[in-house]
Design a protein that fits this description.
164 residues, mainly beta, Immunoglobulin-like, five-stranded mixed β-sheet, 2 helices, 40% strand
């Protein structure tokens, strides 16, 4: 988990130095000690949103060119791994496209960044049209929890706004 946080900090610093676009880190908090099933998944996971906003209504506000990183974190045991396995578009808008992490080369040989397989990265490639203030897309986030053999899913939203 410490390595994952270091990767996120490094990516945030690079994105702020290199461009005016923002980096959005969407953290999925999971009670890994609970008996999670796909029927009760929303009772045991959240994005840190205020009370009254469901996971389905949780929205990440972005602009074209922004980067998004999805990560999972256990709320009960730091040794438990919450791995984001995939992000799928639910609609045709496809506001963002996924960008896999590239391995670092050491002496010419590729070396994967430790912890990067627990994250998913995307870039916002679509903004609202001329007559729209914003566009919204619902997507499916799939994840696993260490010690449980099931893949869980939830469906939050991303909303694209016009650049200022």
């Amino acid at each position: 988990m410490k390595t994952t946080n270091q990767i996120l900090i490094l990516l945030a610093v690079i994105s702020f130095i290199g461009c005016k676009n923002q980096l959005h880190v969407v953290t999925l908090y999971v009670d890994t000690t609970a008996n999670i099933t796909n029927e009760n998944v929303n009772d045991h996971v959240h994005f840190g949103q205020p009370t009254g906003i469901t996971n389905k209504d949780y929205t990440t506000l972005v602009r074209k060119g922004d980067l998004i990183i999805w990560r999972g974190q256990s709320t009960r045991n730091p040794d438990h791994i919450v791995k984001i396995t995939s992000i799928e578009h639910k609609e045709d808008k496809e506001i963002f496209e996924l960008k896999p992490f590239k391995p670092i080369k050491v002496n010419g040989d590729p070396v994967n960044i430790k912890g990067s397989d627990e994250l998913v990265r995307g870039k916002v490639t679509l903004g609202p049209g001329k007559g729209e203030a914003y566009i919204k897309e619902e997507y499916i986030l799939r994840f696993t929890v260490s010690g449980k053999g099931e893949i869980f899913k939830i469906d939050p939203e991303v909303q694209g706004h016009k650049k200022k």
